[in-house]
Specification:
Shape: elongated
Number of strands: 15
Strand order of the largest sheet: 3-2-1-6-7-14-15
Structural class: alpha/beta
Order of helices and strands: EHEHEHEEHEHEHEHEHEEEHEHEEH
Distance between the termini: 61 Å
Bound molecules: 6-O-phosphono-beta-D-fructofuranose
Largest sheet: 7 strands, mixed
Radius of gyration: 22 Å
Helix content: 25-40%
């Protein structure tokens, strides 16, 4: 009997999703298997307008370098609290996990390849408990915060985009003698801020893992203005917080979202810096720019290595788990090592030390 697998993409998009879709589909088709693509996370199995596609060679041609996902995605489609219209038309969170398992069974799917972040891996492992025969996860997120892998695809491209923005902001900051405060994504992990901050020549980098003190930022800016450059770049991770304070949120979590929405630290800090130092400050919130665009060569390669490794694991073993880069190789790690938390920056790592050695202020 021909083996049939399905792919879906869940959570926020990240550059490289299409590279994984194409590599999984090609290596499966080259083995004589059939490949289905589920639209918008699990919506394609639960709501008919979304539906399921057959991923043949025609459908996946020319997509490996495109941003976004040809399957679509959502971060409000958890099948265990799926938005189902109630009697008064309001959406009620409903457990449709069993329906997902049943629907994949009807479609003759033996393995689901789930591309996503921590939330998607948690859903995948719960579907296994509900009786789905097999799931292979592929770690996607610009935040780089998944446990069990050293790196996720999408992160390197987001760092490139952020670094290019910092390069552009240098000249305008210098021209006006301003402090430019750049708010970057990453949720509770400071990977994007740290890597782009170093690569893009920031003077101050604020991470969620290192609570900051205003006095430390002000001292660094005064020193920089005294020494001559007369402008500065501050990179603030959206989840960074002052010592003793909470991070800044712009929207609460609701019944269908997994997290409250972070945001607002950039503009707030710019105001406080201007008030405390007298230097003119402006804020730039990079936002979803960091998720868009073509994957860079690192992410294209990583995505395809992970996609092909997923298919090899399906062929050679009966195991479920998430493909992960560990020690330079792609391996399969059990979901128990991935779910239940995220991976922040280790404040003792050499990259943090590099920032300190070159004089970047980390706010502590
Ligand atoms: O997890 C990826 C991410 O881009 C975070 O960095 C950010 O906090 C969040 O998603 C934004 O989500 P949304 O797509 O709901 O705006």
């Amino acid at each position: 009997m021909t083996r049939r697998i399905a792919i879906n993409t869940g959570g926020g998009d990240a550059p490289g999703l299409n590279s994984v879709i194409r590599s999984v589909a090609l290596s499966a088709l080259n083995r004589g298997w059939e490949v289905l693509g589920i639209r918008r996370g699990y919506e394609g199995l639960l709501d008919s307008p979304a539906g399921v596609l057959t991923l043949d060679r025609e459908r996946i041609r020319g997509i490996f370098h495109q941003g976004g996902t040809i399957l679509g995605t959502t971060n409000r489609g958890d099948p265990f609290r799926y938005p189902v219209p109630g009697p008064a038309g309001e959406k009620v969170p409903t457990d449709l996990g069993d329906q997902v398992v049943a629907r994949l069974g009807e479609l003759g799917v033996s393995t689901l390849v789930a591309l996503g972040g921590d939330g998607s891996m948690r859903i995948a492992s719960k579907l296994l408990e509900r009786g789905l025969p097999r799931v292979i996860g592929v770690p996607k997120t610009i935040d780089n915060d998944l446990r069990g892998t050293n790196v996720t695809f999408g992160f390197a491209t987001a760092v490139d985009t952020t670094t290019a923005a910092l390069d552009n902001l240098h000249s305008t900051a210098q021209a006006h003698g301003r402090v430019m405060v750049v708010e970057v994504m990453g949720r509770d992990a400071g990977w994007i801020a740290l890597h782009a901050g170093i690569a893009g020549g920031a003077d101050v980098v604020l991470l969620p893992e290192i609570p900051y003190r205003m006095a430390s930022i002000v001292e660094k800016l005064n020193q920089r203005y005294r020494r001559g450059p007369g402008f500065a770049i501050v990179v603030a991770s959206e989840g960074a917080r002052e010592v003793g304070a909470d991070p800044q949120y712009k929207a609460d979590k609701d019944a269908f979202s997994e997290h409250a929405t972070l945001g607002g630290i950039g503009p707030r800090l710019a105001e406080r810096i201007q008030a405390a130092t007298g230097y003119e400050a402006r804020a730039v919130v990079l936002g979803h720019l960091q998720r868009g665009g073509s994957p860079n060569s690192f992410d294209r390669l990583l995505a395809q290595r992970m996609g092909c490794a997923a298919v090899r694991y399906i062929e050679e073993t009966g195991d479920s788990g998430m493909v992960a880069q560990v020690g330079g190789e792609i391996i399969l790690v059990p979901f128990e090592r991935v779910v239940g938390g995220t991976r922040g920056v280790d404040v003792a790592c050499d990259t943090v030390q590099t920032a300190r050695d070159i004089g970047i202020c980390l706010g502590d």
